[in-house]
Design brief:
By secondary structure, the chain is of the alpha+beta class. It folds into two domains: 75 residues, Nucleic acid-binding proteins (OB fold (Dihydrolipoamide Acetyltransferase, E2P)); 169 residues, Recombination protein O, C-terminal domain (de novo design (two linked rop proteins), Up-down Bundle). The chain contains eight helices and eight strands. It has a five-stranded mixed beta barrel. A three-stranded mixed β-sheet has the order 6-8-7, covered by helices on one side. β1 and β2 form a beta hairpin. The protein starts with 7 loop residues before the first strand and ends in a 5-residue tail after the last helix. The chain binds zinc ion.
Length: 261
């Protein structure tokens, strides 16, 4: 018979989403794990013990973690073995801020204790692509569209969300946050609230959702498409979350002062 106060011990691969120093030497971390979804835990002595934590508790690090917990309480993390610290990302301002955005976005669209292996894989794949090659314009949009798809908030981009007619070159389209999809000019002829979206942009996003991650670098977005995609997805995500993510604000500010491209 199992004693009432026995803690189950788990091991899983994890990406660090967020950390917070606590007290003299502890660190509270939120992870997205392969086997348990989002997990929040405290690592006692994390800032002192290199042996048990090896500096793995930093945002967007990938590590194998060991933790125990009772019920829904804060997990007790007692070991972190680094799998990938993504050094190339960390040496580049645009990449490291972008990686911070990917993990913040993942945290915002997931709940504790709900496992989704595809979301874990998405995060790892995009971090690896960023670590192993040049920064791909459109990468953030590609991540957003895939995360929205996997978390059940996929916007309707292949047809009009009102009349269901598939994309056609003669029509023009606007995106409606409240509808979660496109409105065609037949349905929305008298209300021009935002500039219309080009068919090319919409097709690129539909394409980006399904193509293998290692081929994404071949999908080049025109300057116009890149801007339209950012506009559409950033505003839709802000609408869904009811707030703007901090890392996105920082990225925006860095762009404004010309620190990144
Ligand atoms: Zn329509």
């Amino acid at each position: 018979m199992i004693a009432m106060n026995t803690r189950a011990i788990h091991k899983t691969r994890a990406v660090v989403l967020h950390t917070l120093d606590y007290g003299e030497s502890d660190r509270i971390a939120t992870f997205y794990t392969l086997e348990f979804g989002k997990v929040k835990g405290i690592a006692k002595g994390a800032r002192r013990s290199r042996r048990r934590f090896a500096n793995a508790l930093e945002p967007f690090s990938c590590a194998d973690i060991r933790f125990s917990r009772k019920g829904d309480s804060l997990a007790f993390v007692d070991q972190c073995d680094m799998v990938d610290h993504f050094p190339t990302i960390r040496s580049d301002l645009e990449k490291s801020m972008s990686a911070s955005y990917l993990v913040e976005l993942t945290g915002a669209f997931t709940v504790e204790g709900k496992k989704n292996e595809l979301i874990f894989k998405l995060l790892i794949d995009f971090l690896s692509v960023m670590d192993n090659g040049p920064f791909i314009p459109g990468l953030l949009s590609f991540f957003e569209i895939r995360l929205l798809h996997l978390s059940g908030y996929e916007p309707v981009l292949d047809r009009c969300a009102l009349c269901n007619r598939p994309l056609e070159a003669e029509s023009s389209y606007r995106f409606s946050n409240s509808r979660g999809g496109l409105k065609c000019s037949r349905c929305d002829a008298f209300h021009p609230p935002t500039p219309s979206l080009s068919i090319g942009t919409l097709r690129s996003l539909i394409h980006a959702k399904d193509m293998p991650v290692n081929k994404l670098s071949r999908l080049t977005l025109s300057r116009q498409s890149a801007q339209e995609s950012r506009q559409l997805l950033v505003h839709f995500i802000q609408h869904l979350l009811g707030r703007e993510l901090k890392s996105l604000q920082v990225l925006h500010q860095l762009r404004q002062i010309g620190a990144i491209g």
